[in-house]
Amino acid sequence: MEFSTFYQYFLFTKSWAYVMMFVVLPVYVLYWNFVLFPDKKERNNNSKH
Questions:
Q1: Which phi and psi angles does 37 have, rounded to 5°?
Q2: What dihedral do alpha carbons 12, 16, 17, 22 form, nearest 10°?
Q3: What is the DSSP string of the chain?
Q4: How far is the C-alpha of 13 from the C-alpha of 27, rounded, in Å?
Q5: Sign of CA dihedral 29, 30, 35, 41
Q6: Backbone φ and ψ of 44, nearest 5°
Q7: pLDDT in tens, 6-49
Q8: pTM beyond 0.90
Q9: Please, what is the Cα angle at 14 between 12 and 25, to 5 degrees?
């Protein structure tokens, strides 16, 4: 893709950065909760301190 000015390139990359941020962050949170630490919630509910 060709850009005639740096400003057009900046707006294009900034918009894709926002799209990737809103896609990657929820996926990372789900990965963190359900893949890395899947039994953390069960332990907290079963143990009464």
A1: -130, 75
A2: 150
A3: ---SSHHHHHHHHHHHHHHHHHHHHHHHHHHIIIIISTTHHHHHHH---
A4: 21
A5: positive
A6: -70, -35
A7: 989 988 999 989 999 999 999 999 988 888 877 755 555 655 55
A8: no
A9: 125
